[in-house]
UniProtKB/TrEMBL annotation:
<keyword id="KW-0131">Cell cycle</keyword>
<keyword id="KW-0175">Coiled coil</keyword>
<keyword id="KW-0132">Cell division</keyword>
<comment type="subunit">
    <text>Homodimer. Interacts with FtsZ.</text>
</comment>
<keyword id="KW-0963">Cytoplasm</keyword>
<dbReference type="InterPro" id="IPR042233">
    <property type="entry name" value="Cell_div_ZapA_N"/>
</dbReference>
<protein>
    <recommendedName>
        <fullName>Cell division protein ZapA</fullName>
    </recommendedName>
</protein>
<comment type="function">
    <text>Activator of cell division through the inhibition of FtsZ GTPase activity, therefore promoting FtsZ assembly into bundles of protofilaments necessary for the formation of the division Z ring. It is recruited early at mid-cell but it is not essential for cell division.</text>
</comment>
<keyword id="KW-0717">Septation</keyword>
<feature type="coiled-coil region">
    <location>
        <begin position="63"/>
        <end position="97"/>
    </location>
</feature>
<dbReference type="InterPro" id="IPR036192">
    <property type="entry name" value="Cell_div_ZapA-like_sf"/>
</dbReference>
<dbReference type="GO" id="GO:0051301">
    <property type="term" value="P:cell division"/>
</dbReference>
<dbReference type="Pfam" id="PF05164">
    <property type="entry name" value="ZapA"/>
</dbReference>
<dbReference type="InterPro" id="IPR007838">
    <property type="entry name" value="Cell_div_ZapA-like"/>
</dbReference>
């Protein structure tokens, strides 16, 4: 299992990860370190343990907000899907009514044409 060295708050840590995940782990460590450094800049020196806990909680707060937004978006997608399905069903109903009306009109035209043909056949040729 590969290992990478990450730096958090000026300290190096050796961490194991799955093959191919080295760059991902390094990127996560950089993001977490940026969170720690940002907190350190705003609250000052408060001790490594407390600083790390605060950074972890801040990251989890961001995760919780992202999860809430994802759930809301999933709700919107479901709502739009239902609306799309309803529109599709309405289009099918309209197409069915249109086809029936068109068939009815074609039958009337055919009846009228037959009547004209019969009338024309009864006119003496002269």
């Amino acid at each position: 299992m590969p290992e990478v060295n990450v730096e958090i708050n000026g300290r190096k840590y050796r961490m194991a990860c799955e093959e191919g995940q080295q760059q991902h782990l390094l990127g996560l460590a950089d993001r977490f370190n940026a969170q720690v450094e940002g907190l350190k800049g705003s609250v000052g020196e408060i001790g490594d343990g407390r600083l790390t806990v605060m950074a972890g909680i801040a990251v989890l707060d961001e995760l919780a907000e992202a999860e809430r937004r994802i759930a809301a978006l999933e709700g919107h997608v479901a709502e739009l899907t239902r609306a799309g399905e309803a529109l599709s069903a309405e289009i099918e109903r309209i197409e069915g009514r249109f086809a029936a009306t068109l068939d009815e009109a074609a039958a009337r035209i055919e009846t009228a044409a037959s009547g004209i043909d019969e009338s024309a056949a009864q006119i003496p040729q002269g």
